[in-house]
Design a protein that fits this description.
The chain has helices at 16-25, 27-30, 39-48, 64-73, 93-105, 114-124, 127-132, and strands at 6-11, 34-37, 54-56, 79-83, 110-111. The protein has 136 residues and is of the alpha/beta class. It has one domain: Rossmann fold (3-Layer(aba) Sandwich), CATH 3.40.50.1380. β2 (34-37), α3 and β3 form a beta-alpha-beta unit. α1 packs across α3 (39-48) and α4 packs parallel to α5. The two termini are 18 Å apart. The relative contact order is 0.19. Bound molecules: 1,3-dihydroxyacetonephosphate. 1,3-dihydroxyacetonephosphate (13P) binds next to α3 and α4.
Length: 136
């Protein structure tokens, strides 16, 4: 049986409220997907949307971004929504850069702000598109 398409959700601290609101708004479109989230983001999303299938990995600064990057390299991730905070220095900035790089290398949709995330959701929620996405 084919694995369900996975979709990753990440938000820096200053953007977590916004991501939670976004996911609640798009709960119906996200429901068919297996959702992966970095640790703290995942905990917030699970509390807000208990019906969604959310698997948290480690917190971003502790390797969560790299775990998501590894999933991209393994061809297990179809898209990534990452509400990034452009105004706060991050100790794990290099991890964020590496994750962004892998999304580019493997050509998966990566939304870094809400405007792009809205566009990604409206396209990606079409399961036919997901099924036609070749595995890397
Ligand atoms: O820092 C992050 C992404 O770089 C997000 O990690 P958390 O969801 O654990 O806060």
């Amino acid at each position: 049986m084919q694995e369900r398409p996975a979709f990753a959700l990440v938000a820096h601290d200053a953007k977590k409220d916004r991501l939670v609101a976004f996911v609640k708004l798009h709960e119906k479109e996200l429901a068919p997907f297996h959702l992966i989230a970095t640790g703290t983001t995942g905990a917030r999303l699970k509390a807000a949307c208990p019906d969604l299938d959310i698997t948290p990995v480690k917190s971003g600064p502790l390797g969560g971004d790299q775990q998501i990057g590894a999933m991209i390299a393994d061809g297990r991730l179809s898209a990534l929504i990452f509400f990034a905070d452009p105004l706060t220095p991050m100790p794990h900035d290099v991890d964020v850069k590496a994750l962004t790089r892998l999304a580019i290398v493997y050509d998966i949709p990566m939304a870094l702000n809400q405007a792009t995330a809205e566009a990604v959701i409206s396209t990606i929620a079409d399961t036919a598109y997901m099924e036609s996405t070749p595995s890397q």
